[in-house]
Specification:
This protein is α+β, with helices and mostly antiparallel strands. It has helices at 4-17, 23-36, 92-108, 121-134, 139-155, 169-181, 205-224, 251-258, 265-275, 279-283, 329-341, 363-367; strands spanning 48-55, 60-65, 72-76, 82-86, 290-292, 298-303, 306-307, 314-315, 323-326. 41% of the residues lie in helices and 11% in strands. A 4-stranded antiparallel sheet has the order 1-2-3-4.
Length: 368
């Protein structure tokens, strides 16, 4: 014979399994169960299966709950409520790496949550370009980065309004394949004076590699600021970049270059080999960039940011990094002769007419 408490427990179990029962009825029966002293063990769907502390100072840990196969990260930001979001990975190892990255970014002050706002590709690229301009990066660098992201926008259905969270692994692989086989039209920049669209044509391995690098840089920029809580394209591998053969000049080739008497190019080629300057670093070399020793002879040159004394056009070295280049005795002698013969502000005066910047060597001429 079944006693009263066992009979109630059996009826309560049947009630909990009945999907038609309302929540109110279930709560009433639980209250009656407590009154009769019957223990009801309800297993929460949010039960934590596994967890690991990542940073005790930040209160950061990764947790795996019974309601989802994906790991979550939980942490405390100063002056804010506790934050928790999915890491979109079922691997504990990957979850630990991602959580450590978030902790490192928070320590560096560059991880800021943004109330769940979904940032579009257009918004992130504009923020990235503003960041580059604030650091005095070349306008060419900014324009090139913006152009590559515009290609990505042209490939996507929603263009630049696509949320950056949508740049998952299949999307990036499809974009890379399209660049390699067909190419993508390049829409004009917002600041362009014309509406000319770049034609779609298959891209070289180097161009494809650089385009995908720009996309991944954009995604990292968003992640560092908390605009992208996880990496939706985790596991993406960059395409191989073909490296062309290294061109080495023989002694005979160098002798021919140094013997070039056209427009005094022989001395310029020798100055290049003695200093290892880039082409534009020499074309933008001013007399005031030359550092002289106590005897008044050139001892070094200062590669720096500058403004054209004629047009006011700004120029800076690659990546905006300035440096001092020491001169060999032969390079100092060539520079001394060039400066004494120059009647303009440039250290090396070009005999080729240049209405915009008189006396300045042009970049195409140096690249010949």
């Amino acid at each position: 014979m079944v006693d009263e408490s066992d009979s109630f427990a059996m009826s309560l179990s049947a009630t909990c399994l009945n999907p038609i029962k309302t929540q109110t009825a279930a709560l009433q029966e639980c209250s009656v169960a407590v009154a009769f002293g019957v223990h009801v063990n309800r297993k929460s769907k949010y039960q934590i299966i596994d967890e690991e502390i990542i940073d005790s100072d930040l209160g950061m840990k990764i947790i795996l709950r019974s309601d989802s196969p994906y790991w979550k990260v939980q942490y405390q930001q100063p002056g804010r409520k506790q934050c928790r979001h999915s890491l979109k990975t079922m691997s504990k190892k990957q979850a630990k790496l991602e959580a450590r990255r978030i902790a490192r970014d928070m320590d560096n002050g560059c991880f800021v949550t943004n109330s769940g706002k979904k940032w579009t590709i257009g918004e992130v690229v504009e923020a990235r370009c503003d960041w580059l301009r604030e650091r005095d990066r070349s306008s060419l660098t900014v324009a090139d980065f913006h152009r590559r992201i515009r290609q990505l926008g042209a490939f996507l259905p929603k263009c630049m309004k696509t949320p950056i969270q949508n740049l998952n692994l299949p999307t990036l692989e499809a974009f890379e394949s399209t660049l390699r086989t067909e190419g993508v039209e390049t829409p004009p920049a917002p600041w362009a004076k014309t509406d000319r669209v770049g034609k779609a044509k298959p891209q070289s391995p180097k161009t494809v590699h650089d385009a995908m690098k720009a996309v991944r840089t954009l995604m990292k920029f968003a992640r560092d600021r908390g605009w992208l809580g996880y990496d939706p394209a985790a596991g993406y591998e960059f395409p191989k970049r073909e490296v062309g053969p290294i061109i080495v000049f023989s002694a005979h080739d160098l002798a021919m270059l140094y013997a070039d008497e056209e427009d005094g190019m022989g001395d310029i080629w020798r100055f290049y080999t003695e200093t290892c300057l880039r082409a534009k670093e020499l074309t933008w070399l001013l007399k005031e960039d030359v550092i002289v020793n106590d005897e008044g002879r050139p001892a070094a040159i200062h590669i720096r940011k500058k403004v054209c004394p004629r047009t006011g056009k700004k120029w800076q070295p690659k990546h905006g990094k300035e440096r001092i280049v020491p001169l060999t005795a032969r390079a100092a002698s060539i520079l001394t002769e060039a400066m004494s013969a120059s009647t303009v502000s440039w250290a090396f005066q070009s005999p080729i007419p240049n209405d915009t910047q008189p006396g300045m060597w042009t970049y195409p001429r140096m690249r010949e």
